């Protein structure tokens, strides 16, 4: 072995990020501030399934300290999604407005779950933004809802998306070998039903971030996520901007565990800075994080396994159903992995 090579096996190695994290010196997305920054608060749906017929933001706009209120008509391409762009950035009216701002998203007026965003308020302080959100008045026309994954697949169930008959996002049949012969060769057969619920990822840093225009004129978004390039593509698509106009930075993450694969504040932070040319900051409360960020999928699985007494598996038969919620995002990949 050459003299300049270091043997590390059996030795304690310091993590390069340990000192900053244990001393509190490492900044997370919620720790960044900029001179002249404004604060953002988001308004979520009050219904699980409904059509928005009217949004009145006049009282919120009139509140002292409110700088802007943005709704669906302010989004150039009011759709996003990682695999399928099936989710409005902001639900409401105006995605087909005559001024050419909105994309042709005729279904943006439909809310499909509580985590759908309807509006964002930008104000001088966080407290004013929070107060203004409560002043926005939304008129809903309630639509039938379904909450059970098996009932959702029935022909008479309420349909959330026209492209997904019977509310089925994806179906992955896996077939290999002779299943009957496999069970015939088994000395032991075990059969059972298994179910998991929603999983809250419970990361320590809630959804937070700051956006600003950097010295090269780029809309810069400092957030926590899991795919920085995907965040960039989602932002540039929704705002109809070239990629060189947007920059996404991940500082310390503060935990993720799959819960940050989907979008939360990224597009709306970029929207506000793009519209106002000002730094914008947001920090979700823990209650907001638990209510409105995405969860790991509940799954129901019927499984039948055959094996010899020596422990060799001879057959597997299973049916796996996952509750992917109102929108696709990563669900097609999640269910592919679950089946596999």
Provide an overview of this structure.
The chain is of the alpha+beta class. The chain folds into two domains: 30-144 and 200-292, Aldehyde oxidase/xanthine dehydrogenase, a/b hammerhead (Aldehyde Oxidoreductase, domain 3); 151-198 and 297-339, Aldehyde Oxidoreductase, domain 4, CATH 3.30.365. Helix content is 19%, strand content 24%. The chain has helices at 18-23, 58-62, 126-133, 179-184, 228-239, 266-276, 286-292, 331-339, and strands at residues 38-44, 50-56, 66-70, 110-111, 117-123, 137-142, 188-196, 208-213, 219-223, 246-249, 280-283, 299-307, 313-322. Strands 3-5-1-11-8-9-10 form a seven-stranded mixed sheet, sandwiched between helices. Strands 4-2-6 form a three-stranded antiparallel sheet, with no helix packed on it. A hairpin with a 5-residue loop joins strand 8 (208-213) and strand 9. Helix 5 (228-239) crosses helix 6. It is globular. The relative contact order is 0.19. Residues 97-104 have low confidence and may be disordered.
